[in-house]
């Protein structure tokens, strides 16, 4: 979401509390990295908010003793449920105790609504549900007795994590896990905006990887809307966000699944067809693009030198080099925290817009990562006037994302292939080019090889 719209919403929207990352993400001393939830404002004004919480796009139902939906059961849920959660006297939902069921219900709604708000702004239009021919609203079920979570046609229903002993871990409700909810909503956005492969002959290998990557990128872009998360990420790395082998620099955040996915160093030759594994080079290439756009703004604003940018992107470097690069970033970051933050938010918004324009232009049929690359390069012309083409190409080349070797795009076409010349050179001074009944309206003669060389 653009920083301007975010500021405007602060005056009109409804306030909720969300934990940017799960509370079980802890520091070395065992305390949570994000002990307090952050206040977040969704676009629905208090006057239009319904108990649940609910609005015209989605609603929470806190089902009691519900079994997970299966192939035979689907929304709407009609069984027993706890009373819908109401706002406080001020019309907002910031009064709820983070350890209460009501908090879980409200935070699940707020997370999904917030991510939808963010991406509707990047798309510049209303995002329809992919199930809107059947249901008008998304059903959100926050806490069922299940050590799992699932999204399906018209619903998201969430249970809990698992203890090491394999039982349900009630301290880890998935509905409070921002990354998981945002990832699932990312799938919905891609279903709606890209669609699904239509041919039974289409194995959809890259489509599957693209779906998982899109879920993760949705979550990362949304996560970068938390002030506390942005400050923590920059404070820990000092702005040295280079992803390859960068996990050691993100400190406590390296336990965050979302950060592990973003800061991955996998290339196409490292992965197979399994969608989650296959998503990693694509996610890495796109996240790297954002990081390099961020660094470019730092250079343009005189916050880091072009030399530091170049050293940090030229890999692999020696350990000494990497230490020096980190020391240089620390010196540059000191006293310029606000400027670094602004540059990162600008890069985030560039990536959000880039993804929206890209997804809006992709065909799901026989989709390849190379199609995604081409769509990104074209989207960059729309979003930045083509300013970041070289960055995108370099990031994708490093990840080995290229046309498949048997792609027609890689075929070479000689003049013979195009019917513009015969295969065998002849010794005559001139000859007709279309040997087998060429049309009279086409060019009729070209120089022979011999004559051309001598002319
Ligand atoms: Zn997924």
TrEMBL record:
Region (Disordered): 72-97
Composition bias, Pro residues: 77-87
Superkingdom field: Bacteria
Name of the protein this chain belongs to: Peptidase M4 family protein
